[in-house]
Write a structure and sequence with these properties.
Helices cover about 55% and strands about 20% of the residues. It is an alpha+beta fold and about 190 residues long.
């Protein structure tokens, strides 16, 4: 039986920000609680599962409430095999660069500068942290104003991201990272 503190610790350890909230991959939740518990959680609270499409690939994430429902399923069935020691041995699926929402807010506070009446993170800093692909994706997918903006200073164009823009950059980075991890897992399974 897992306590709420242990469940929160497991979620927080692997959570990252996608879309508009912190999530973990369905695969991670299934490693912790098993497929039946996660299916139960999704059936009980369908909005706890988030599905994102990227090209032909789709990603399934589960938000905190769904994670708690899966844990409750395990606890209510009294599966003694689910112990904290076993859960802590599960290999982390993510690198240290995947951030949850609170970490993104802290990063924004740390990296932002005040330009033209608002706090923003400069393009160069976002690119250093999340990579050019993630930064360019947000710029190409949206118009200036809400997520990002630019202004001219002499001959220099200065591009910057609002907090919402930095969240989108982080979301793109996280989804791409999960894609790469899946590909590695598929290759690993094919080799075995």
């Amino acid at each position: 039986m897992l306590s709420r503190a242990e469940i929160d610790e497991l979620f927080n350890h692997e959570s990252f920000f996608v879309g508009d909230e912190d999530v973990v991959t369905v695969e991670y939740a299934e490693k912790i609680f098993g497929k039946n518990a996660v299916k139960y959680a999704i059936r009980q609270h369908n909005s706890s599962q988030k599905i994102y499409m990227r090209g032909k690939e789709f990603f399934r994430f589960i938000e905190r409430y769904g994670f708690l429902i899966a844990a409750d399923f395990i606890n209510s069935k009294n599966f003694e095999k689910q112990t904290t020691r076993k859960n802590k041995k599960i290999m982390s699926m993510h690198s240290e660069k995947l951030l949850n929402e609170n970490q993104i807010k802290e990063l924004f506070k740390k990296e932002s500068v005040f330009l033209y009446m608002k706090d923003v993170v400069l393009y160069e800093r976002a690119e250093t942290i999340f990579g050019k692909e993630a930064v360019e994706y947000v710029i190409n997918a949206s118009n200036p104003g809400g997520l990002w903006s630019y202004f001219w200073h002499g001959d220099n164009r200065i591009v910057s991201f609002t907090l919402a823009g930095l969240k989108q950059v982080s979301s793109y980075y996280s989804v791409e990272h999960v894609l790469k991890l899946r590909e590695k897992e598929k290759q690993k399974q094919c080799e075995e």
